[in-house]
Amino acid sequence: MLNQAMHDMRYALRQLRRSPGFTATAVLTLGLGIGVTTAMYSIVRGTLLAPLPYPHAEELVGVGWRHAGEPPSAEQTGETGDLLLANAKSFASIGLADDGPLGQNFSDGRGSATTIRSIHVTSGYLPTLGFAPLLGRTFTREEDTPGAAPTVVLSEKLWRTMLNADHGIVGRVIHINGDPYTVIGVMPSALATVDTPDAWQPMQLSAKTAGYEGDNFQMIARLRPEVSMAQASGELAGLTKAIYQQYPGYAKRGGAGAAPLSERVWPLRDVVVSDARPSLIALSLAVLAVLLMACLNLAGLITARASSRRAEIALRTALGAGRIAVMRLLLLESLLLALCGSVLGIGLAYMVVPMLLASSPIDLPQMNRVVMDLPVSAFAIFVGIATTLIFGLVPALGVFRQSTETQLGASRTAGAGVSQQRMGRVLIVAQVALATVLLSVGALLTNAFLRMRAIPPGVVPEHLYTLQVNLKGARYTSSARSQQFVQSVEEKLRGIPGVAKVATVNGLPLDSGLNDVGYPAGHKELEGTVEARFVTPGYFQAVGTTLLQGRDLSSSDTETSPRVVLINQRAASLWWPGRSAIGEYVFDLDTNTPSRVVGVVADTHVRSIADKVNPASYHAYAQVPDDVMKPINGWFATTFVMRTFESAGNLPIAEAAEASIAEVDAEVPTAKFAAMQSYIDKGVAAPRFFTWLAGGFAGFSLLLTVVGLFGLLSYQVGSRTRELGVRIALGAQRGQVLGLVLGSGLALTAIGLAAGAMGGFAVRGVVASLLSSTIYVNASEAASLLGNEGLAIAIAAFAMLVSAMAASLIPARRAASIEPMEALRNE
What we know:
Helices cover 51% and strands 17% of the residues. It is of the alpha+beta class.
């Protein structure tokens, strides 16, 4: 038995070596298809499917204050969070945290400072995650009470990198934002995820907490062992009623006709992966389409090869070989192809996964858990064997449906049987349809990317640089102290060679800023979201935003002068349509004191180059009151913008700018130095990434279709040599033969294009949803960026027709060049 198996293996290897073109094409096709599939599987497995890295993670849930039908979330307001912390009984523990880690200034008290990411949490947050501290302990309820002495828990990473893994750190004092904090514990690195902070501080939640009334908090909980998810949902439904009784104003949230908000519970893993899930699912579908293309191509290759070997198979059967023995030979050949393709695919996946993770603009949860390990390799081999057997060996076994006599006779006549020819045509039509869909998706995403690049950002990014710092802690709670720092830094920055203009802003375009509520004086019915920004004189000249009406801010706009504001064009046209806004008044920062409009500036985008422009207000930095300056400094970085002369060239502006900060306050490190263009590039990173991926998938599918069509037509020409020779001998013009073969290829292409066009129209919504989830716009706005799907399908059809013509031309010319006598003599 073993000798027979080795003999069959050697024979299968010889057969594959005798057909190097077929073998190389099949292995490469399999390898590419398996490679991209395995790479995507490893990412999906590590992010969407892997359990969270916490003890008994199945007990962890996220609790969100959401509308019905919205994706899983743990968002809470301070008010709803407070009520749940006090009344929820379904949970063994429950915790609240900031909406995300914020930049803080860390110092060990030895004169040097660096930027870290810290998050405020309630005393129950860290115990809910289930990890015991590596050193010390976590917060007590007393330490989480407003007014308690400041304490901090550090991450193991910060402890090792910044504090030399000092085991005596517990009880020592470090400085965060210049304020002393007592270290009470160190959390282990096992807690680390992609968004893990460097430090945890007690939240000390109260009605005075910044952002208390907004959706600025995240809630997690651990279910009691005897409580199910359904039971917890039932209790939350009752607490929702209590929230509406205590806070009746929540009934207006979401706008007229919107579904009411309610407290909802989800598995924490669903909350963590919620933002990334649509993108990963869409990419997985595209990868599966590419794998299917590879499988169809492989099926066509093996079917054609099996048909060409009918004489060999028939002869073996006639000489006494059983069908099981022949099938065993075909099986061994298929397994060899599958193993070679799988090995190539694993190698490609090892190269592709790091590149995808490094270039992806999607915030992938648990990205550190994406690995190419043994289970992933086993998955690749399984896919290789399964696809080869299903799409390769099964169609090839069609040769056994005919009797030995029929096969021997057919081998001397027309070549492939009707069933094999039909199978080949069906496979080509399916490939053309899939390739058309992928090409149309690529065209839609390319159009969206080009449209986004053409949108004016509202600033002139050339020669514009930004320097961000965090003004936090007790020293920068007052407006006067913050102004003093800003004025001193601006003066030093102006002295740097090559710097032409300098200004300051809290809330840079395409970065982040304050979402406020505002309205024109006397028209509270127009109340809505306003993007509030705080700038120093000369800001608009520095960033290149056009002043459309009125005047800019000046040094005379101080804390003692009447409060003034500039608004953007969107606000002016919405609030005072058809007339000038100069001299009107706006309520936004302070509902008791309005600000007088002195200027109107051009619109700029906030979170994304494609987002809908909201009304925006620009207040004089010197007029920001203390009760506003403290939370603004707490939430947002203070950004210095510097426009350089064109002749500045490669002057070391970054180093000089950072030195200027250190000269003013050594405890305030530079958080980030970047060119303004980088913010614009970040805004189009997602559509650029998806465009490149879609283009790669579409190009690969187009190549496979060309190879498949070329192979099918070449095989048909070879099997019909006698027929074509007779046609020419009976008077058929060579142009007619050329057209016959070309027409056959184009007819199959046209059928596939019709099916693919329907698929192209069907996937538009999926593509719009994918785009909207990554560029901060709704689905309808994303759909408008995609453009007309009819045009995209037309582009795809044109590319497919040109490719089909090229694939069909060589076999057609070979058919037209057949010499009748030579063809008949060979037969």
